[in-house]
Hints:
Blueprint: E1 2-7, H1 10-21, E2 29-33, H2 40-50, E3 65-69, E4 73-78, H3 85-89, H4 93-97, E5 102-106, E6 120-126, E7 132-137
Parallel strand pairs: 2-5, 2-6, 4-5
Antiparallel strand pairs: 1-7, 3-4, 6-7
Helix pairs in contact: 1-2
Amino acid sequence: xxxxxxxxxxxxxxxxxxxxxxxxxxxxxxxxxxxxxxxxxxxxxxxxxxxxxxxxxxxxxxxxxxxxxxxxxxxxxxxxxxxxxxxxxxxxxxxxxxxxxxxxxxxxxxxxxxxxxxxxxxxxxxxxxxxxxxxxxxxxxxxx
Length: 144
């Protein structure tokens, strides 16, 4: 199932992410698509809130992965500099897949062949400075 949403501010993007995060379960993978500054990290802030996590979510650009924990775990990856399975192996990504955390992957198109078929795809397109068109594709849980 695929649904489109329009958000008109970063706060609305966080709110949409929060609704998505409330529906995520251990082992789910969220595969983001969208350019620089589209709002992927902003959406992940909302997902963390929806999962009940209180951490300050930031872009994992330099760390490759940021982990946030509470009752649930969120592992937030940045694959901008990853160009395939060989590079991906060095990130520890495959270890996280079976680790029971929710995984959010920025620049998922760089590792598309390595993502599970069940990944929830979130495409974020900047329409203007604050307006985003966000397309969510996943199972019926994500009719948010």
